[in-house]
Structures are given as C-alpha cells and as structure tokens.
Amino acid sequence: MRVIRATRKHLYSITAMTRHFFPYTGFTFSTIIERMADKSILYFAAEENGHTVGFADVEFHGKQAKILGLAVLQEFRGMEVGTALLKKCLAAAKRRGCSRAVMFVAEDNDAAHSLYSKFGFKKSGVLHRKLWDKKVLVYGRDL
Ligand SMILES: CC(C)(COP(=O)(O)OP(=O)(O)OC[C@H]1O[C@@H](n2cnc3c(N)ncnc32)[C@H](O)[C@@H]1OP(=O)(O)O)[C@@H](O)C(=O)NCCC(=O)NCCS
C-alpha cells in the first residue's frame, strides 16, 4: 500500500467515496477537479495494487489545516490505511507551516474518534450545524 498525491486518475474513486461517505459536502466530479487544482487544498490517495482504496483531503487556511475527508474502503480497513493517510495530511500541514490541524467527526463515529485520539487530537468544540442530523465534534491538535 502507498499513499501519494492524488491525480486525475484517482478522480472517479475519490468522487465515489466522497458521495458515499460525505454526501453532505455536495462535492461532484467537477467540484473535486476544481478542488484538486486549488493550491490551498491537497488530496491524497491510498493505493493497493494500483487500485484506490482510500483518500483524504486537507485544506490550508493560514496557520490552520482542516482535514475534511478521510475514508478507507470497508475491505481495507484495520490495515493502517487511515493511519497512513492521516500521517500524510499532518506532514503536509507541517511543511506548509501550519501550527494546528482540525477535523470534524460525527459524534457516533467510534473508529474515527479512536484514530484521532491515537494521534493526539482532542475535542475542541462542536460544529454549529448538524450533518445527517448528527452532532459533529471538532477535534484539534497543535502541530
Ligand atoms: C475512520 C477510518 C478512516 C479508519 O481507517 P482504517 O484504515 O480502518 O484505520 P487504521 O487501520 O489506520 O486504524 C488506526 C486506528 O483507528 C482506530 N480504529 C480503526 N477502526 C476502528 C474500529 N472499527 N473501531 C474502533 N477503532 C478503530 C483504532 O484506534 C486504530 O488503531 P489500532 O489498530 O491501534 O487499534 C475508516 O473507518 C473509514 O473510512 N470510515 C468511514 C469514513 C469515516 O467515517 N471517516 C472519518 C470521518 S472524517
């Protein structure tokens, strides 16, 4: 497995995963093309035998990095793919001179809470709006 900067060849898989896991973003194929071209956003793809099995996107807002999507296909979970994607996002944020990373997690997403806690993220607030009718917690960590 390897995690690399996503390119257009990953677009279809990233769009499908975004629709499946993060439908509330409303991101479409063309939105994601635009986001990939935006210098303040990075997409990473996790590849296994050439297939895209996970992705993450991170937005840079001054000194703060917002890790938005982080998803791994069901069949490839529990194999450290999420860990590898998160490490790439954090390393990229440090390289860009960010001093803080934040992420948003639905209250009942135990796997994500556990993964972020393992990386030293702490609950720092609650998102002002609900997603999918669920309360969303903001997790943050200094870099
Ligand atoms: C959250 C997610 C990305 C984790 O990916 P993954 O590749 O399975 O994670 P890893 O194998 O790297 O696991 C790392 C840690 O995450 C936590 N974790 C992963 N799966 C878990 C589960 N089913 N239950 C509890 N904790 C879990 C554990 O702390 C684990 O560390 P450990 O193996 O030492 O116990 C994955 O479950 C996913 O894609 N979920 C759907 C999309 C999503 O909810 N994304 C997060 C919202 S921002």
Any key phrases for this structure?
143 residues, alpha+beta, Aminopeptidase, 7-stranded mixed beta sheet, 31% helix, 36% strand, globular, binds coenzyme A
How many helical elements? 4
Number of domains: 1
Structural classification: alpha+beta
**Terminal Cα span:** 26 Å
Query: Any ligands, ions or cofactors bound here, and which?
Result: coenzyme A
Question: Would you kindly provide a written description of the structure presented here, covering whatever features stand out?
Answer:
The chain has four helices and seven strands. It is of the alpha+beta class and 143 residues long. A seven-stranded mixed sheet has the order 1-2-3-4-5-7-6, sandwiched between helices. It has helices spanning 11-21, 29-37, 81-95, 110-118, and strands at residues 2-5, 41-48, 51-61, 64-72, 100-106, 122-126, 136-142. The protein is 31% helix and 36% strand. The chain has one domain (2-142): Aminopeptidase (3-Layer(aba) Sandwich), CATH 3.40.630. Residues 21, 70-72, 77-83, 103, 105, 109-112, 114-115, 118 line the site of coenzyme A. Coenzyme A is lined by residues 21, 70-72, 77-83, 103, 105, 109-112, 114-115, 118.
